[in-house]
Amino acid sequence: MSFLLKDQAYDKFIKMINDKELIYGEIYSINALTATMDMSKTPVRDAIQKLVDEKRIDILPSRGIRLHQITKEELTQHYHFSCAIEGYCVATLAKTYEKDKKNPSVKKLKKLMEQMKKMLDEQHDFDEYFALDQKFHQELLESLGDPYFNSLQHSPMGFYNHPEIQLTDNKLSRKEVYDCHQKILNAICEGDSAGAYEALLEHSDLMLKAF
């Protein structure tokens, strides 16, 4: 039961981040958050620790918590991770699709893009839009059919695991992100591995500049 409550608390924190109820620079009382979430302290603190481990939240002793202040070094690491790991995946998928036009991963990516297109209006919930964004990147990793690469979707390193990057003052428009995804998918469908890799780099550049 406590494990389930911890997960519920974690999900509530993620939703609060996505809904901009937690914003950069603000310090929040753990007791106040616990009351707002209508939960006991233990699952809330467990969820906070998980977010700390993921470098999503910072604990300020005797003061409270705040959204993690991403350092220049961490941004560089996110950038290198996304370029290296996802770049390899999109280049490989382009080569694979060139040989097999029925590739199931490409079919899924096309479907996700259709769904993302319907979410471009900022009035749609960010949660729904970002879930599709995340699935797009997860599918790139899963396209290799390699258990190790599949496990990397849970890494805190990729840009795709940090929705708050799209919710900064230098907010990216959903259309900008969508266009990057479409460019990646177009190159894959053309069997252009170099073009797919370059499109992925452009996407990572865009995310880097958002901070």
TrEMBL record:
Coiled coil: none annotated. Keywords: DNA-binding, Transcription, Transcription regulation. It holds the Pfam family FCD. Residues 77-206 form the GntR C-terminal domain. GO terms for molecular function: DNA binding; DNA-binding transcription factor activity. InterPro entries: GntR_C, TF_FadR/GntR_C, Tscrpt_reg_HTH_GntR, WH-like_DNA-bd_sf, WH_DNA-bd_sf. Signal peptide: none annotated. PANTHER family: GLUCONATE OPERON TRANSCRIPTIONAL REPRESSOR, TRANSCRIPTIONAL REGULATOR, GNTR FAMILY. This is Transcriptional regulator. The lineage of its organism: Bacteria, Bacillati, Bacillota, Clostridia, Eubacteriales.
